[in-house]
Amino acid sequence: MCFQVIERDESCAGLKFPMAPRWQSNNTQSSNTMAAAGRSAQDEAAREILVFGPFRLDPSQRRVERDGSPLQLSGRAFDILLALVRQAGNVVSKTELMATTWPGAAVEENSLRVHIAALRKALGDGNDGVRYLSTVSGQGYCFVAAVSRPEQRQPAPTNPTYVHNLPAHPRQMVGREQAIQDISERLRAQRFVTVVGPGGIGKTTVAISAGHALLAEFAGHVHFVGLGETGSAAPVPAIVASSLGLRARSNDPTNSLATFLRDMRMLLILDCCEHVIEAAAALAERLYQAAPELHILATSRELLRVEGEFTYRLPPLPSPPEKIVLTAANALAYPSVKLFVERATAGGGEFALTDANASDVGNLCRRLDGIPLAIELTAGHVGAYGARAMVQLLDQHLNLLWEGRRTALPRHRTLRATIEWSYNLLSDAERVILGRLSVFVGSMTLDAVRSIAAGSEDDDTILAIIDSLVAKSMLALNTGSQPTRYRLADSTRAYAQEKLAASGDSEAVARRHACYFLGLLEKIGDEANRDLSTVAEEFGNVRAALTWCFSDQGDRRAGVALAAASIPLFFKLSLLAECELWVTRAIEALDDTNGGIRQGLVLHTALGAARMLTGQLDELGANHLRRALELTERIGDIPGQIRLIDQLHLLQLFVGKYDDAFGIAKRGEAIALANNDSNAVARMRVLLSISCQYLGKFVASRSYVEKALRHTGLDKDVLSGLTLEYPKRAQITLARVLWLQGYPDQATRIVRRAISDVIAANHPVMFCRALPWAFGVFFWNGDLEDCEEHIDRFVVEARRHNLAILQLVGEAMKGITLLARNETGVGLAMLKGSIEKLHSLCFGAVAGFRMPLADALAATGHGDEALDTIDQAIAQAQHCNFMMDMPDMLCTRAKALMRKSNPDLSQAELSLIRALDLARHQGALGYELRAAIALARLWQRGDRRREAYDMLAPVYQQFTEGFQTRSLVAARGLLAELNPPRSRSFAAK
User: Fold this and answer.
1) So what's the architecture of 428-504 in CATH?
2) Residue pLDDT, tens place only, 132-143
3) Residue 248's closest CA among 794, 614, 556?
4) What angle do CA 493, 497, 498 make, to 5 degrees?
5) pLDDT tens digit string along 694-728?
6) What's the fold here for domain 177-313?
């Protein structure tokens, strides 16, 4: 390839350079300083060489070479490439790239796309699996290849901010940089890599680090599933499905997972597979075969032995060889020694690596086989015993295994010996407490430790033992968290669990563990201003407690209570599919455990709500909500009745029963009024306002919502408990009706502020509930750019949390925005697909999405198909009394009639007149203007200019704001075109 960077030198054309200012000659020192600085900057630029793959980029020469041959790029493309390469690994926004490439000029985004496409072609992006540029939807572009700067200091790598579930990036990892690079390269080439090695070798750490390194390449789609917290009989496909937010529709959701991942480019990390090897192997092989864009990274102590698997054996950390003279300086060149020293000094101990003890430390690391966990455990004791004594102790405890280890005993026995040796250094009391601590999953608070680990021991003894375990590095202490939390290393926890099981105390400890977290959740649930974020970190323990409660050895009575108490936490974390799993088990056990009415009420409510939000609009979910409502009536729980009516109202809206939704909201208002509950009255009036909008009764809608907003505590407790409400629901409802009545500026201000408040609440389900209702205002005003970023996030969150209905609604909104940007092909496909799926799920408001679909079909010359589509929408809307969008539907029908193969202008005129009359009847000035514009244009075509003007002008004159919005700008322009002599000045308004 022979290419040269080509650009037009337009920067100096027609410019005159001013003479140097007088002060320069009078300030030689300053001038020299500036000149020196300029030369320094030029020299620095001249030294900057950027290398990636076979390419070498020289910014000073504006030259790119591939294997020594120059690439031919336009100047604009070179500027874009340079900006991306200099920020490799980070997402560079489209705005920033355009400002860099076309400074001070107004350009369309399409120009940027053209140059990006040219760059991809010139670099061979995508050929043979090699990737350089990644498009991050709704954000910009990212250069994903590794970039080096020869003979220059490398800047600290930075990662873009992505929404993912990876654990925190290990910050003190030693000696694994090459392993991470090798694993990443193998994943790119082979798609399926299993990292194999003994326990404690650092497989999880390396896998997490590789995931972080590949975030940009997978545009943030890296998902981590930890199997180490599960039992050997764990349903691996169900765990993976739940982690991805998929509801298990059968005992084995493998096929559902394969379907979900089939067309998705994702890196799936399956960590700690060895104890569920058969199930993990079967699932990984099935997903590998079914999903060609899925990359799998597994960690295990043994191979999965399935199709497509490539093995990466994680080696030990390099250690000093025998018979080498070590000094403190050259010993630190070995990663195992460096790790040992870092861990030995991390706790503020007095250990220091010296020339005198360097050989002993090297000996320790070598005899520990370079296994990081073994090194860390040993280093934790070196301050107390000294390096020489540690070598002797280690030799004594490993002598029985030494010969077997040399003859290929499994390497995990070496780690086991190391852990066992550390374990044997503990007192009997410390061993007992360590075994009890193994019941915890992840980290634990001191309060939890004192409650669960204590048997006959007093509190002072427990505290002393905990302090001793921390000092001996058997228990990690995280002082950065509030409150302080403790954690067992996973391998230590597994070893301690064996000891706990052998002691016969495991059932009693598991029971105390479950009861502790039940009490914690119930205590927070009883608080007036509960903050569920305080227990979010305990979710792993809550899940483990539920697993034990519903096991053969567990306590189902405690399980029912724990499932009921944990529901708000599931909703807080938006884990609705998993919530449904545990609540279903609890309801099945209700009769056997003689569960109380209040438990049944909470469980039935949660199951109905979870099923609804995960797209199961069936009688089963509705029956659970009705059963819960019956229970609230039986015990006189008025707040409970209000919550249930709220959820039943939403279900009726979802299935398109708008009159029934209005009726149940009136029922709720009557209950609230009878009980003199002003907050409940306000909530029910918001529901009535929403129902009135669907029914096309906009005057009544505004009246209801304004009355509701007079109550200052309307959003009280929205963020706590089991509720499908969301912050600012009333404000968004008001914004919609204000737009419909002709106040677009007020509507826009309110809805933007409301969506910002919802986002600040940081609750995915509530965000996904709010945005579709707010979307109408953005769409009507033509402000889709303001909303598009939110839509991309919406789709991601809805998919992650298995909000099936809302995910499809989000895809429909995305399709509408693409059509508005004239990206017709992909927009039509996305909108059609989502409509078909929504229809199959019996979603009632699908008629509203058929309207923009018909509009787009008409605009692209498919008038006959557009007419069929809008007629179907109108028939469906009339059947369920969905009158909210009827004026716009009639306008769309008129467009279809005008664009069909045999245009029918008379019928189009009748449709527009009906739309105009209906909008006036509804009090919808916003819709009236849109219908008037369409009718005026039709009359203009028929040379009825005066009639068109006389019809449109009075509608326009009713507006007092919004003159820069799309509809009013169009109306003003049309009036100027019609422009009768008697009123020329009007068009200037």
Assistant:
1) Orthogonal Bundle (1.10)
2) 887 765 567 878
3) 614
4) 125
5) 999 999 999 999 999 988 766 665 544 445 667 78
6) Rossmann fold (3.40.50)
